[in-house]
Amino acid sequence: MGAFDVALGVRLTLSGSRVRLLMMVGGVAAAVALMLGMAGALPAAAERIGKTTGRGVEPVGGGEARTEGVRARLSVGVWRGHQVRVLLVAKAGSTAVAPPGVPRTPGQGEVFVSPALAAALDGPRGAELAPRLPGKVAGTVDREGLVGPDELYAIAGVSAGALDGVGATGEWAPDFAKPAGGLFAGQSAYVDGTGMRQSSSPAEAMPLVLGLAAVGLITPLLVLVGTSTRLSAAARERRASAMRLVGATPRQLRRLGAVEGAIVGVLGAAAGLALFYLLRAPVAAAIPIQDGLYAGDVAPPLGVTLAVLLGVPVLTTAAGVLSLRRALSTPLAARRQVARSGAGLLRLAPLAAGLLALSIVYADRGALATGAFHAKALLFGGGAACLVGLAISGAALSRLAGALLARWGPGLASQFAGRRLLTDPAGAARTVTGTALVVVVVGWLMAFLPLLTSSQNEGNGHLIGVLPGSTVVVTLAADSDVDGAVAGARAVPGVTGAVPFRDVTLRRPGVPVPDEMDLDNPSVDQGVRAVVADCGALGTLLGTPVPGCRPGTVQRLSTSEFEAHALAGAGRLAPDGKGRAVPVPRGIDTVTLPDGLTRDVSFGFTVRGDLLVPPAMLAGWDEPGQWFPTLLVATDGRADTVEAVRTSLGATAMALPPTTPGESAELARSESDGYRQAALIAALAVVLTGGLSLAVTTADAVRERYRVHAALTAMGTPARLLRRGVLLHTGVPLLLNIGLAILVTAATSWLYVRVTAQALAVVRLPWAGYAAIGAAAVVASLLATAAVLPFVRAATRPDALRTE
Amino acid sequence: MSEPLLRATGLHLAFGQTKALDGVGIEVRAGEMVALVGSSGSGKSTLLHCLAGILRPDSGEVVYRGARLDALSEEARSRLRRDEFGFVFQFGSLVPELTAVENVALPLRLAGAKRRGAEAKAREWLERLGVLDVAAKRPGEMSGGQGQRVAVARALVAGPRVVFADEPTGALDSFNGELVMEELMGAARAQGASVVLVTHEIRIAAYADREIVLRDGRVTSPVAI
Questions:
Q1: How far apart are CA A745 and CA A733, in angstroms?
Q2: Helices A425-453 + A411-423 axis angle, to 10
Q3: By the 8 A CB rule, do B210 and B180 touch?
Q4: Candidates A708, A718, A804; nearest CB to B93
Q5: What is the tally of helices (H) and strands (E) in chain A?
Q6: Which residues of A touch B143 (CB under 8 A)?
Q7: Based on CB atoms within 10 Å of each CB, which residue in A52, A135, A140, B149 is the most buried?
Q8: Residue numbers in B near A712 (CB within 8 A)
Q9: Mind telling me which PANTHER family this protein's record contains (chain B) (predicted)?
Q10: A492 CB contacts (<8 Å, ≥6 apart)?
Q11: b/e burial code for range A381-399 (CB count within 10 A of at least 16 → b)
């Protein structure tokens, strides 16, 4: 490249319009900053997953049982709408291992707390929290052990016996879990939002899913880089044509275009890098993600950073050359402003076919629910057609919108905007189509991530609608003082009732408890499973009598596999055949508990057994049962009452902290909700990027048309009419494309859920998220217009009309 | 003699250190054609902008039909320009996305006229100026002369009292330039509109009733024809 060409290119770039150069560099800088932010999101997600999965101990392989080491269980409770996570740890022997974030394993009665939890304990409601911790605060958990700065987290030392229960391994492990690279965390270390250890880890799918999302999200950012570099294309094209007229060769023009593009790219990349680091901390603090986000966790890998910093100037250099291609072909390229060929309406065909297919699926949704092949084919085919349609129909949609606006839109502003859309529909759609596609992809992620990450455990979500909403479900450890817990709960002001449930196996006195080997042996007397509870008190709590309930009487539960006559002959039965016996009446009748209470769930509260025994018949029996005692505590619905119930239980309910059914379902969903939140944030960022692209191109178009705007102002055209025209020209393509994208996403997601509804999965379509994306599109449009207003005002100054 | 339709006295206007107008005063009567003549940088366009209410002078006054233009708000001046004035610029300044008939109908639409009626009247004017054949074409599809005649139609369609023409033939060849001037002056006279014309060409200025020569922001020679 000749030195003269380079020097001329630099001179033309730097001595031209400063405003235009600033806009070009600014657009590229914004895109680079966003790209680095996206690239940093993966490590941030990995960090969060890694820290969460690390809250446990290393898996213990087969072989000789250890007598020293560590055991741990994560207990997740709720306080004033916030999750409170307590890692209960027990240590045996002289092992010197420590959980992440603390210098040593806390001894029994010691608790290390996160800074946020320490602040909460010191706050006005600290007295509610403190009794729930099994010990005194002895230190702080540092950042290495925390998911985010706002996390309410504690590591508490407990006795080994306190861990005998749900979720904790029985064996001593050599060390706490050290997951290898968060996104690739091992299955055995995975715990869900309720703290329950899961047998399958969704983390295996995360790298693929998040990687696809990151690649997809880059699309509008690349569009922003491209549009920024093509600013004032018409003016530069005319300049290039003029140079060709005086003898410049196409090669020289390419060099000039390349130099200009490279300068913009280098300056933009540097500015973008600076912008990213400047804004990282305030944006991390502002993002509404559970437990907050450490700014330092958003760290794009070095390789990616270098790729962006080097790749963007290459991209802008290419764009700079491409923007002159019309002038390269003929020196007369920019003589006449001829309307570009509008995109044919035939391009709408795939989108129309896709929407028609989805409509047919909806009309025949009965077939869909049965999994009929034709319904599924139409669903997936329709979705794919819609995606392709959105990709190719942007210009045609803009042209259609332009025609409708120009013909039917109210007022002159519609005519201005409509005509502009008809003249250059591709230009209007270019910046929006990429955004629309990403909205579809991210929308699907938001809807389907829960299917990928849904926990087998839905907590007590199945009790929603069965129990009054403010009922607290308390699951105690097997050896807890149930009566004491009931008395404590009933003493809380605002509690309207407390009904305990306990399980026991009843046998004929003298019949031995079968060995473990004989548990499934039908020839061995397995005893009868009994639930010790008061159905009358339960009816009062539910607000409706329990069908068939006769308080004070032993009754058959409707879920029993034994017929009434088989149970009637059982005679007197005692807990495990020992102690006080319970008479089974000859004319035993059946009590039917609400379906929701008897549903067979993996980990939530369920009442299943053969007999219902009134507590009075086993008064004084305090042997631990086989399953965990559960209290249902009805409250007056006030948050203070619910919190007081939880506080009254202190640290005794650490096995499964007390929650309402709604809270329990939220906890089960919380991790997938986190990913959904992240997908929503990414989608909003993408839509705003689309708006930024629009603002850049629209501002440029206004500047290029300054004479027209100045003349219109001279003729008496109100400025608000011109602004309205800009708003319509900017907003209509954005809203149209994004609106269609959301429609496609919502329709396909809703129909897909119908096909694959998983009984155990907690699936909610993110309607609020879709609405947020739509609102963001409106905001982006308004922001784009607002950003352009200064240019409209400047362009309508009378100075622009001066000919001398 | 009747009161002048438009009168400016003692106008001063500077752009930074540059004095564009230095105590300029002129009068335009109803139905009169006045040409502002001078070399490049003499202040003629600036004077035209002040007379049209586009620019506010630093001092002096512009009176239109007894009301001080420089004392009106921007919105009031904008309304005045819409309802009482017409404009023809050197480069036409037609809206490139609108067809010729839509461009001509624009002042009527701005004044609140319905689309159909406005475009019907626009077609009448296009026919009157001999450019009805480009009614459905956009500015980029017309020749320079055709575009300027469309601009003339736009300036006159709303029946303005004053037409301000800033170098209307500056981008045209002599033949087309004379064609445009004949159409402009003929139509304006037929409507009884006054014309304030800025030009640096003497032959174009000859179309006017009176020439006012400007130099360095001052009036040096009002010559009555």
A1: 18
A2: 90
A3: no
A4: A708
A5: 24, 15
A6: none
A7: B149
A8: 93, 95
A9: ABC TRANSPORTER RELATED, IMPORT ATP-BINDING PROTEIN
A10: A641, A644, A645, A648
A11: ebbebbbebbbbbbbbbbb
The tokens for A245 are 């007229």
- Which domains, and CATH codes, for chain B? 6-224 (3.40.50.300)
Distance CA A762, CA A759 (A): 8
CA A72/CA A173 separation, integer angstroms: 9
The whole-model pTM stands at 0.68
Which residue's structure tokens are 């303005």?
A: B160
Contacting residues for B208 by C-beta, under 8 A, at least 6 apart: B33, B34, B35, B195, B197, B225
- End-to-end Cα distance, chain B: 17
Residues A714, A719, A720, CA angle at the centre, nearest 5°? 150
* pLDDT, tens digit only, all 225 positions of chain B: 568 899 999 999 998 888 889 999 999 999 999 999 988 888 898 999 899 888 889 999 999 998 898 788 877 888 888 889 998 887 757 888 889 999 999 889 888 888 889 999 999 999 998 999 999 998 889 988 899 999 999 999 999 999 999 988 887 888 888 888 998 999 899 989 999 999 988 888 899 999 999 988 888 876 433
CA-to-CA dists, residue A421 to A387, A394, A472, angstroms: 23, 11, 59
| Of A336, A708, A798, Cβ closest to residue B140 | A336
Cβ within 8 Å, pair B102-A715: no
- Tens digits of per-residue pLDDT, A703-749? 777 777 788 888 888 888 888 888 888 788 888 888 888 888 888 88
- Our CA-based measurement puts residue B1 at a distance from the nearest CA of chain A, in whole angstroms, of 31
Joined tokens for residue A87 = 């890692």
What secondary structure does DSSP assign to A32-95, as a single string? HHHHHHHHHHHHHHHHHHHHHHTSSBPPP-SSSPPSSEEEEEEEEEEETTEEEEEEEEEEETT-
* CB < 8 Å to B85, chain A: 716
d(CA A203, CA A190): 9
Q: How far apart are CA A442 and CA A447, in angstroms?
A: 9
Query: How far apart (Å, rounded) are the C-alpha atoms in residues A22 and A232?
Result: 12
Taking the CA of residue A726 and the nearest CA in chain B, the distance in Å comes to 14
Report the C-alpha gap between A175 and A60 in whole angstroms.
10
| Contact between chains at A416 and B95 (C-beta distance less than 8 A) | yes
A13 touches A21 (CB < 8 A): yes
Q: Which of B83, B128, B122 is nearest to B106 (CA)?
A: B122
From edge to edge, which strands make up the β-sheet containing B67-68?
A: B18-28, B6-15, B59-64, B67-68
For the record, the structure tokens of A326 come out as: 């019309």
Which tokens go with A274?
């600076």
Q: Please name every residue paired with B79 in a beta bridge, in sequence order, or none if there are none.
A: none
3-state secondary structure of A552: coil
Please report, as a single letter, which amino acid is at residue A553. Answer: T
Q: Which residue type is seen at B102?
A: E
Backbone angles phi, psi at A554, to 5 degrees: -70, 130
A735 half-sphere exposure, CB direction, 13 A CA radius:
13
Pairing of strands B210-215, B33-37: parallel
Residues of B in contact with A724 (CB under 8 A): none
Closest CA to B85 of B164, B153, B28: B164
Hey, which residues 327-356 in chain A have their CB within 8 Å of chain B? 336-339
- In the Cβ-directed half-sphere of A436, how many Cα atoms lie within 13 Å? 28
Q: Quick one: tokens of B167?
A: 């170098």
Report yes or no: B89 at the A interface, CB cutoff 8 Å: yes
Angstroms from B115 CA to nearest CA on chain A: 9
Complex ipTM value = 0.80
